[in-house]
Amino acid sequence: MALPIWVQAGLWGLLAGSALVIGAAVGYFTRISHRTIAAVMAFGSGVLISALSFDLVEEAYERGGFIAAALGFFIGACIFTAANWFLTYRGAAARKSSGQQQPSEEEEHGSGLAIALGALIDGIPEAIVIGVSMIASKTVSMVAVIAIFLSNIPEGLSSAAGMKKAGRSAAYIFGVWGGIAILNGVAAALGNLFFSGFSDEIIAATMALAAGAILAMLVDTMIPEAFELAQNYAGIIAVTGFLAAFFLSKISG
């Protein structure tokens, strides 16, 4: 017997979120150069931008029209920006950094919690997208899952490396990323359950809202970190990731 759609959504969300733990393990136990981390982050950013463009926002537009998609997209970006501003003020500005920029708890009390919450707001919109996108089709968008999975690896990798250099314990680091991976699964399942009874316009606006938050996250946190270290190569690496996801969306469609 097939699993309920909301359970399937939760499992796909958990799978996409598990890449955070994989990335964190690589960042904690290995010594990868900052430039390599930046290159992977640039590639993941390109992949996710492609998925937003050709999968998520396009589906939101087809479901609810331009007004619902545009309004949701803009509101999502505003919500993320406001949350990111607050958490940056509390010490989470360098949560994606693999270098020495992350403050330790001794340097800035409460920064560990702020970094954990920052990582949470970075990941939850991606999980909601997975759950909501499965409402009508009853099947997952593999392009979206692959894009989120690929972008989560450098996110976990870079942040975990920075957490380790800031003196945070392995229990804290893997507790954060393991917890967020589980919450990704929960958010995907709840997104599917909660919005399944709403109109196409509401579903479209919700998908677009999550997509707007994802794009704001990329521009505010991932892309600056990638450019800081990869610099002249960040653009071409991001374009490569974009084209890879675009090709995947076409062969899977």
What's this model, at a glance?
This protein is mostly helical and 253 residues long. The chain contains seven helices and no strands. The two termini are 27 Å apart.
Verbal overview:
The structure is a single chain. The chain has 253 residues and is an all-alpha fold. It is 83% helix and 0% strand. It has helices at 5-29, 34-92, 111-137, 142-165, 170-195, 200-230, 234-252. Helix 2 (34-92) crosses helix 4 (142-165), helix 3 (111-137) crosses helix 6 (200-230) and helix 4 (142-165) runs antiparallel to helix 7 (234-252). It is globular and about 50 Å long.
Question: Which helices and strands appear, and what pairs or packs with what?
Answer:
Elements: H1 5-29, H2 34-92, H3 111-137, H4 142-165, H5 170-195, H6 200-230, H7 234-252
Helix pairs in contact: 1-3, 1-4, 1-5, 2-3, 2-4, 2-6, 2-7, 3-4, 3-5, 3-6, 4-5, 4-7
Features:
globular; mainly alpha; 253 residues
Residues in helices, as a percent range:
over 70%
Give the uncertain stretches in residue-range form. Answer: none
Number of strands: 0
Span between N and C termini? 27 Å
Largest sheet, described in full? none
Shape: globular
Order of helices and strands: HHHHHHH
Integer-rounded radius of gyration? 17 Å
* Class by alpha and beta content: mainly alpha
| Percent in strands | under 5%
Number of helices: 7
What's the rounded overall pLDDT mean? 83
